[in-house]
């Protein structure tokens, strides 16, 4: 993820249970950098947090 320009996230709409995929620019994401999963280390995958980002309907 440290080389990516965007991150993708999956969320579930509370009212309907419908899954939604979100694409967010990496500058709007806080990288937590704490993924040490065997076999995925070379993928650059890490945990991240997204706060106060507008999601259009």
Topology at a glance:
Blueprint lengths: L5 E7 L6 E7 L4 E2 L16 E2 L8
Antiparallel strand pairs: 1-2, 3-4
What does this protein structure show overall?
This protein has 57 residues and is mostly beta strands. The mean pLDDT is 83. Strand 1 and strand 2 form a beta hairpin. It has one domain. The N and C termini lie far apart (27 Å). Helix content is 0%, strand content 32%. It has a two-stranded antiparallel ribbon.
By secondary-structure content and strand pairing, the structural class works out as: mainly beta
Q: Helix count, per DSSP? A: 0
Low-confidence stretches: none
Proportion in β-strands: 25-35%
* Mean of residue pLDDT values: 83
Number of domains: 1
CA-atom Rg in angstroms: 13 Å
List keywords for this structure.
mainly beta; globular; single chain; 32% strand; two-stranded antiparallel ribbon; two-stranded antiparallel sheet; 4 strands; 57 residues
State the gist of this model.
The protein is an all-beta fold and 57 residues long. Helices cover 0% and strands 32% of the residues.
């Amino acid at each position: 993820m440290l080389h990516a320009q965007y991150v993708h996230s999956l969320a579930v709409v509370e009212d309907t249970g419908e899954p939604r995929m979100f694409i967010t620019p990496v500058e709007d994401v806080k990288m937590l950098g704490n993924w040490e999963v065997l076999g995925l280390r070379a993928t650059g995958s890490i945990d991240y947090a997204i706060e106060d980002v507008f999601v259009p309907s």
